[in-house]
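If you are new to this repository, start here. Below is one unmodified record pulled from the training split, so you can see the exact layout before writing a loader.
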Amino acid sequence: MLDFDSIWSYVFRRKESEDSQALRVLGRALVFDDLSRSDLKKIYRIIHKRVYKNGEIVFTAGDPGVGMYVVWEGNVAVVVTDVDSGSEQVVAHLGAGQSFGDVALFSNSQRTATIKAMSPTILLGFCRPDLMNFINSNPILGNKILIRLLTLAGSRLDITNQQLSEAKKKLTEQKALLASHGRAKEESGV
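And here is the target side for that same chain:
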């Protein structure tokens, strides 16, 4: 004879375990890593789970940005297209607990890169309208998340500025080297 209580307790225990795993992954994301479990549960209510196959495109550069994602399982590649050659270059790999697309939560900008699943992947995502509704109903927590998002965006901007400055310095050095090489050729009569 079947024990239906045991079957149902197994089903609900498994669901609880999946939720706990999702909360743990959300808590590892830099956007949410300083939030309490109670706060994470509130955020989890507005999260949409998306499943992608290996090689499937999450979104493409130029698509409208509407939300952010946290990798729950699997990994994704961040791919940009080289303007000069048209070739695609993988600029980053993101795994469990890492997030992307967060700028879309406070900007109407287009996606700047293509995101491609590199294995079977599960993403947890939420969209700008969901965040705005969340802020209206949970202003303290919502503003805490916004401040965290802006802090992370500012940090990335600082890193990008530093990389740009280093690239500019290298370019200046290369130009000087080419110019001196050209002068050396002229002086030697070549």
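Two things worth knowing about this chain: The beta strands are 48-52, 57-59, 67-73, 76-81, 88-94, 99-100, 114-117, 121-127. The longest strand covers residues 67-73.
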